[in-house]
Amino acid sequence: MKAIVANEFGPISQLQYADWPEPVAAGRTVVIEAEVIGVNFPDGLLVRGLYQMKPQTPFVPGMEVAGRVVAVGDEVTRFKIGDRVASVSSLGAYAERVAAHEASVMKLPDAISGQDACALLCGFGTSHHALKQRGQLQPGETLCVLGASGATGVAAVQIGKAMGARVIGVASSEAKREIARQSGADIVLGYDNLKDALKDATDGKGVDVAFDPVGGDAFDALSRSMAWNGRLLVVGFASGTIPKLPVNLTLVKGYSVVGVFWGAFTQKEPAVYAENMKELVGWHLAGKVKPVIEGVYALADAPAVLQRVLGRGAAGKIVLKP
């Protein structure tokens, strides 16, 4: 079969569209014929050797796949050949067929497309966990979302509204701010003079919960814009700069800085993760959340697509098709 292969850690341009061994269903493993493959920012970090984990090379990147089960291991009890499913894992999804442990696989209702299913896994899953478990967002609170036109940003805006928050979306261009606005943001801002803009938008009170997948200077602005008892969620560093926190601000302003690592959460708290996904799917079926799919590209185009995602040139969710 064909897959996107990283023979060594390095630039995205070194990825190859090449032959790769067919996956085998054994034990509790199922094999999924890929219909749609999700593209995520961490995929690019992994390829460049900049992510929290470093697999042995060569490897196939990719975290999300939706499709149909074509083989099952002899210990599999939850799935059969022909089931329509989606799966999330740390590796292996940029391929025509993917092996997945049945614990990481969920059945898909017919009403959910493969594209939306992939978006609901990592992007919406990260934002939901961030706002629900880590940020404990409450109805009526003010939520500020950086990168509000990206895959996790759009998700955070929509989930924030579903949870009853007043949402401020921050994005770098008018086109991206329009995406945040259409996703439900009550106020949209750019990054220029962000500290002053947030002060005006909150009448000087500050932000109750901040969702930051960007880092850099924007984090610095947030660190000075938090409300008393606020929660500043550290989600990622798409700017390429890991900021330093003046911890005296947390003392004086009485807020918390909270790390968000969704991948570890899914492993350490699988029952909570399953409940989260059940709630997200329910919200999707009820029309409360709806992923923004920017584009669908061929699997062979993954290197170019991933390079654009890493360069923060994408808006919404991008998916691949074999």
TrEMBL record:
Record EC number: 1.-.-.-
UniProt enzyme class: oxidoreductase
Molecular function terms from GO: oxidoreductase activity
Keywords: Oxidoreductase
Pfam families xref list: ADH_N, ADH_zinc_N
Domain Enoyl reductase (ER): 10-320
SMART domains recorded: PKS_ER (SM00829)
InterPro entries, per the entry: ADH-like_C, ADH-like_N, ER, GroES-like_sf, NAD(P)-bd_dom_sf, Zn-ADH-like_protein
Transmembrane region(s): none
Protein name per the record: NADPH:quinone oxidoreductase family protein
Organism, scientific name: Neoaquamicrobium sediminum
